[in-house]
Amino acid sequence: MKTIINNPKIKQVTDSAFTKLMDENDFNNFRFNKNVDEKIIIKDITIDSCIFEKINFSNIELIDIDLIDVIFDGCDLSNKCFDNKLLKRVIFNNCKMLNTSFVGASLKDVQFNNSNAKYLNFSNSKISNTSFKDTNLAESTFMEVDIKNFLFDNVNLSKAEFIKTNLSGIDFSASDITGTIFDLYSLKGIIVDSVQSQNLVGMLGVQVKD
Fold it and tell me: What is the structure's pLDDT at 24?
């Protein structure tokens, strides 16, 4: 069954700089393509209908930020925290997202494309209508995640962990699951190819006699 993901609803945006909006705390219908040199804090708002192009967020602290209809293109969001927040109709294209946290977050209609997203943490999150394509998720954590309509396509999941997460019907055959850890609950009903199945059998301590 094909996973249908709704794209961000962005009709028209105005180019802006972060500093122009800090006093008003308004992040709606803008495009940002210039980095900031000094530390700034964005907090307690919903970023709505915005595009971020090649923004390095290392100088931008995000606190209690929801994302609705947002595109990140070529951005560095490493170590950012979206714990317990809402992400709806969001695209991450060609982004660096090392150690970004989504603990307890709600993700719906979210796309991760061609991104370096090692060490992501999705523990206790709710994820629906979401895809990961051509993305590095090595050593990421999926613990007690509520998943619905979910796609992995050419994803590096080496040494990732899936614990107490219902993955029944999820197709891993086009992805790398070398060293990936599944508990028995998470393993039930997943789709793998013949080579991957042999590795999983070995992980479970089962010996296959020739």
Answer: 59
